[in-house]
Amino acid sequence: MKALLIVDVQYDFLPGGALPVEEGDKIIPVINEIQEQFQFIVATQDWHPPKHGSFAASHDGYIVGDMIQLGGIDQILWPVHCVQDTKGAEFHSSLHTKKWARIFQKGTDILVDSYSGFYDNNRKKDTGLAAYLNKHGVKEVYVVGLAADYCVKFTVLDALKEGFHTFLFKDATRAVNIRPGDFEAALQEMQEAGAVIVDSSVLLNL
Question: In its UniProt record, which GO terms are filed under biological process (predicted)?
Fold first, then answer.
């Protein structure tokens, strides 16, 4: 069985949001078209408590882009984003959600960030996503969403570690690109780990 995994298509990661991904909104129509080809769909949602440890505003004397230790690992500091029960944390209204089987929230622990939809960044807490997919007999995971060089990448890498045959729809993701070339570097890292990078046009042959 195959599953579509939609990662963090939320207002704060879209143009006009607190942590916007350039052209992030352009992937929404693509994702909606992709969803028509899947019977089993799940999604992840960044869902931070106020004053989360990954926010620069939570640390006196630090600014966005600074590096700190959080949860025992290196952490880049971000703008305040995807705070629980705020508009920025909501999925974009034009994103089709009716077919979704379940939403997995992440980043809920104030003391550690969580890019992956499977685990937090120090891999101590499990969202339950892998168990849920296994329970439903999923063998193949197809990933779309935001952002390619952070939450999408780490979700793909963890899907591979959990034993899923993992695909990424290249035309249904965009990158933060803090450094030029981060998108391409993320694609290469995922591919070298075993992910299959495809265009959504392959759906015609699934």
Answer: pyridine nucleotide biosynthetic process
Distance CA 170, CA 3 (A): 16
Q: Please, what's the b/e burial string for 148-166 (b: 16 or more CB within 10 A of its CB; e: otherwise)?
A: bbbbbbbbbbbbbbbebeb
Cβ-Cβ contacts under 8 Å for 203 (sequence gap 6 or more) = 34, 37
Per-domain residue ranges of the chain = 2-49+82-205
- Per the listing, tokens 């966005």 go with 64
Give pLDDT, residue 205. Answer: 62
Q: Which residues does the annotation mark as catalytic?
A: 8, 106, 151
Return d(Cα 206, Cα 96) in angstroms, integer.
21
pTM of the model: 0.96
CATH fit for domain 2-49+82-205, picks 3.40.50.850, 3.30.1330.60, 3.90.76.10, 3.30.420.10: 3.40.50.850
